[in-house]
Amino acid sequence: MKRFAAAMVLLAVMAVTAMAAQEKGPGGPEGFGPGHGKGLVMMLESLNLSPDQKHQVAQILKDNREQAKGLREGMKAAHENMREVMDKTPGDEAAVRKAAQGMAKAGEELAVNLGKVKAKIDAVLTPEQKAQRDAKKAEHKDRFKDRMGKHEAEMDDWIAKNLK
């Protein structure tokens, strides 16, 4: 159970960090979510959807906008609460745990919602379009892993340099 909670907190932190970083970018708050708008639009455009598929996906996204917005705002509030706790009382284990649990719960609700929307969109796509989307996601994941590896190496270098 502790591992699950820790994984949820990590997922929540990563999601909020990604959302915050993308919110400042050209994707903006339009579309599926902060930053997701541009990336999702680019993904959908690359799948060569039929006019009917475009209409169906647009309706799915429109129907979900308000709920998703509320969930993202809840996640943002939980993240801000965690940041405040870490700034003011980082050594207060109980406060940190409580804030982390809030982030985990918000992240869980957001993930469930995103999963439901993804399932609805998947029902509209052909098997070929799903395979094409999955290949693009795998490429993106690999690029993300590469960037994270570089960041980790930079941190290792900084640590080694400053422990001499």
Description:
This protein is mainly alpha-helical. It folds into two domains: 124 residues, no CATH class; 36 residues. Helix 1 packs across helix 4 and helix 3 runs antiparallel to helix 4. The longest helix is centred in the middle third of the chain and has 38 residues. About 18% of the residues have low confidence.
The helix tally amounts to 5
Identify the overall geometry. Answer: flat
pLDDT < 50 stretches = 4-13, 15-34
Mean pLDDT: 83
Which structural category do the helix and sheet elements fall into? mainly alpha
β-strand number: 0
Q: What is the domain tally? A: 2
Please render the helix and strand layout as text.
Blueprint: H1 2-23, H2 36-46, H3 51-88, H4 93-124, H5 127-162
Could you give a quick summary of the protein structure above?
Helix content is 85%, strand content 0%. The protein has helices at 2-23, 36-46, 51-88, 93-124, 127-162.
